[in-house]
Amino acid sequence: MLSKIPVDLTKLPEEAIDREVLRVAIIAELDAVNLYEQLAQMTSNPLLKKVFYDIAREEKTHVGEFQALLLELDK
After folding, report:
1. How far is 15 from 74, CA to CA, in rounded Å?
2. Under DSSP, is residue 20 helix (H, G, I), strand (E, B) or coil?
3. Contact between residue 19 and residue 2 where contact means Cβ atoms under 8 Å apart
4. Dihedral of CA 30/35/38/44: which sign?
5. How far apart are CA 27 and CA 4, in angstroms?
6. How does pLDDT run across 22-49, given as a tens digit for each residue?
7. What's the Rg (C-alpha) of the chain?
8. Which domain covers residue 39, as residue numbers?
């Protein structure tokens, strides 16, 4: 299922679009982290728990990458 982008990018000035897209991506990654951590807490299966926490950790890496890009654009 595809998520709806919560911002109407057509209403933003062109120079603001890249920053806003990165902000939306960060929010999406944080939502994914939250989901995977909740799923890990819901299962008693050690393998599933490990996989969900591993995926959540990967999503946190993505957040950091997007934040670095956003900081670069803000220079």
Report:
1. 11
2. helix
3. no
4. negative
5. 12
6. 999 999 999 999 999 999 999 999 999 9
7. 15
8. 15-73
Tell me the residue ranges of DSSP E strands in the chain: none
| Token pair in block for residue 69 | 């890009």
Angle subtended at Cα 52 by Cα 65 and Cα 70, rounded to the nearest 5 degrees: 15
Spatial distance between the Cα atoms of 51 and 47, rounded to a whole number of angstroms? 6
Q: How many domains does the chain have?
A: 1
- CA 59, distance to chain mean position in Å, is 6
pLDDT surpassing 60 at residue 54: yes
What is the model's pLDDT at position 2?
56
Question: Rounded distance, CA 43 to CA 38, Å?
Answer: 9
